Q: What sequence folds into this?
C-alpha cells in the first residue's frame, strides 16, 4: 500500500497543513496540455496491448538508467534500426528484465510513478520485485483486457479535462479527426510541433518541405510560400482543436531579420549540407515568425530549450532517437530571447511559455523575465527536473521574483496514458508541502494557500492553454 502522506513534509505540524492542502487539490480535474501520448488508441478505444511495452519499452526515463548499468535495450523490447538481426523479446521477458533491475530506481521519480501506476491505476496489491514479476505481469495484463481499462474509460476515470498530444507539422491528424467525430465527450487535441519543417539539421527536413507543399498547395521553395504553408498547417491544427505550438530547439536563440536577409537565409538552408551557423540562425528566426503567427491565430507558443538531444551517437545509430541519451546543457535566455521580446514581449494577447533544463537560469534570468514581460510565462520543471526535488527547487527559486501567476501550472510530459495520474499526484503533493511552509511561516493565510494550490494544480494550466476556448472536441 502507498503511504497516504508520501512526499509530504516530515515535520508533524507542516505535514498536517500540507495534508489539508493536498486534500483540497487531490481530486481536481487533470489538465494535460503537453505530452506525448499516441492519440490513436483513444480514437479507436483499442485496449493497451502489453503493459511491459507500454510502461518500459517506451519510457526513456527507464531506458537511460538501465542502459547506464549495461542492460541491452534489445532486452527491453527496443528494436534496432541499423539492420542488425536480434532475437524477438516479448513483454513478459521485458518485464522480468526490468524486475531484475528495479532496485536501480530507488529515490527516483520513475519509482514513484511506477508504484502509483501499479497500485492506484492497475490495482496491483503485491510488491513488485524479481520474485513477483510474472504474477504482477499477469495481473496487469488481465486488468488491461477489462472494459474499465480501455483508453477512453481510463481518460474518464482519471478526470482528464484536456489531453494534448505532440504532432509534427506534416502529420495527417487522422486520429484526431476520428476523435472529433466519435460519440465520446473527451477532449484530445493536437499540438503543432513544426521541428520537422523548421529545423534544417533534423533528419528529413528537405523531404518534409516537399510534404508541406503537398499538404497545403503552397510553394515551399520560396520564403513567402514557405511561411504561407506553415500558416495553413497551423490553421488545420486549430481546426482540430489545438491550443498551442511547441518548439524543441537546442537553444532559446531568437532573431528578427529584415525580409531580404530572411529570404537569403531560407535559400541557404534549402541546400544540402546545411551549415550549422545557418541552421541555428534559421531556427532563431522561425521562433520569431511563429510568435507573429500566434498573434494571428491565438496558439500558445512553447519553447523547450536546453537539451543536447541524442548525445550518444552509438545509441542513436543502433536504436534511433529518443532512447534516453538527451543531456541538459547551459542556456542563455536574457540575450537569446531579446529579439523576440523586443518585438512582441509587451503583447498581452501573446503567450510564450519557456521551459528549461538549465536550473541555474531560474532565479537569474527566467523568473525576472517572466516577472516583467506580459507575453512571457515560465513553464514547469521539465524532464530531468520533473521530480520531487526538482519541483521544490523550482518553487523556491522562481516564486519570489516571478510569483505564481507568471507560471503555467503543471505539464506531465507523459508518454503513456497510464502514468498521467501519478505525475499530477506527485506535483500536487510537493506543492502542498511548499505552500504549507509558507503558511507555517505566516507568509500566506491558509485560505490563500488553498487558492494557490488550486491555481497550480488546475486553474493556471486551464487559463494558459485556453481549455475553455476554441473548436476542440468536447468543449
A:
Amino acid at each position: 500500500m502507498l503511504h497516504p502522506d508520501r512526499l509530504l513534509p516530515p515535520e508533524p505540524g507542516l505535514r498536517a497543513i500540507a495534508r489539508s492542502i493536498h486534500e483540497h487539490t487531490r481530486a481536481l480535474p487533470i489538465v494535460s496540455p503537453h505530452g506525448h501520448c499516441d492519440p490513436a488508441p483513444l480514437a479507436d478505444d483499442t485496449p493497451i496491448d502489453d503493459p511491459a511495452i507500454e510502461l518500459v519499452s517506451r519510457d526513456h526515463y527507464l531506458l537511460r538508467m538501465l542502459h547506464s548499468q549495461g542492460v541491452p535495450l534489445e532486452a527491453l523490447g527496443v528494436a534496432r534500426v541499423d539492420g542488425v538481426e536480434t532475437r524477438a523479446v516479448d513483454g513478459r521477458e521485458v518485464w522480468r528484465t526490468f524486475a531484475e533491475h528495479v532496485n536501480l530506481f530507488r529515490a527516483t521519480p520513475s519509482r514513484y510513478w511506477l508504484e502509483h501506476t501499479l497500485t492506484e491505476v492497475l490495482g496491483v496489491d503485491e510488491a513488485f520485485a524479481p520474485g513477483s514479476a510474472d504474477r504482477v505481469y499477469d495481473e496487469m495484463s488481465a486488468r488491461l483486457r477489462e472494459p474499465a481499462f480501455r483508453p477512453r474509460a481510463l481518460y474518464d476515470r482519471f478526470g482528464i479535462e484536456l489531453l494534448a498530444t505532440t504532432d509534427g507539422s506534416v502529420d495527417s491528424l487522422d486520429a484526431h479527426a476520428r476523435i472529433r467525430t466519435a460519440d465520446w465527450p473527451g477532449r484530445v487535441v493536437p499540438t503543432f510541433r513544426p521541428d520537422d519543417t523548421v529545423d534544417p539539421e533534423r533528419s528529413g527536413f528537405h523531404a518534409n518541405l516537399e510534404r508541406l507543399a503537398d499538404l497545403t498547395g503552397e510553394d515551399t521553395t520560396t520564403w513567402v510560400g514557405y511561411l504561407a504553408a506553415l500558416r495553413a498547417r497551423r490553421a488545420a491544427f486549430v481546426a482540430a482543436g489545438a491550443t498551442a505550438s511547441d518548439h524543441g530547439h537546442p537553444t532559446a536563440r531568437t532573431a528578427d531579420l529584415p525580409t531580404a536577409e530572411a529570404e537569403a537565409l531560407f535559400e541557404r538552408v534549402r541546400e544540402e549540407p546545411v551549415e550549422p551557423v545557418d541552421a541555428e540562425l534559421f531556427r532563431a528566426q522561425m521562433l520569431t515568425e511563429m510568435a507573429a503567427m500566434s498573434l494571428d491565430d491565438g496558439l500558445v507558443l512553447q519553447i523547450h530549450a536546453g537539451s543536447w538531444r541524442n548525445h550518444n551517437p552509438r545509441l542513436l545509430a543502433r536504436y534511433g532517437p529518443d532512447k534516453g541519451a538527451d543531456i541538459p546543457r547551459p542556456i542563455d535566455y536574457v540575450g537569446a530571447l531579446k529579439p523576440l521580446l523586443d518585438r512582441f514581449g509587451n503583447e498581452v494577447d501573446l503567450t510564450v511559455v519557456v521551459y528549461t533544463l538549465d536550473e541555474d537560469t531560474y532565479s537569474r534570468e527566467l523568473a525576472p523575465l517572466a516577472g516583467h514581460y506580459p507575453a512571457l510565462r515560465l513553464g514547469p520543471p521539465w524532464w530531468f527536473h520533473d521530480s520531487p526535488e526538482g519541483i521544490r527547487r523550482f518553487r523556491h527559486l522562481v516564486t519570489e521574483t516571478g510569483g505564481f501567476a507568471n507560471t503555467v501550472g503543471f505539464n506531465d510530459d507523459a508518454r503513456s496514458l497510464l502514468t498521467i495520474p501519478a505525475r499530477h499526484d506527485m506535483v500536487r503533493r510537493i506543492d502542498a508541502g511548499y505552500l504549507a511552509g509558507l503558511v507555517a511561516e505566516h507568509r500566506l493565510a491558509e485560505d490563500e494557500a488553498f487558492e494557490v494550490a488550486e491555481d497550480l494544480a488546475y486553474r493556471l494550466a486551464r487559463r494558459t492553454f485556453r481549455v475553455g476556448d476554441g473548436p476542440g472536441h468536447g468543449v
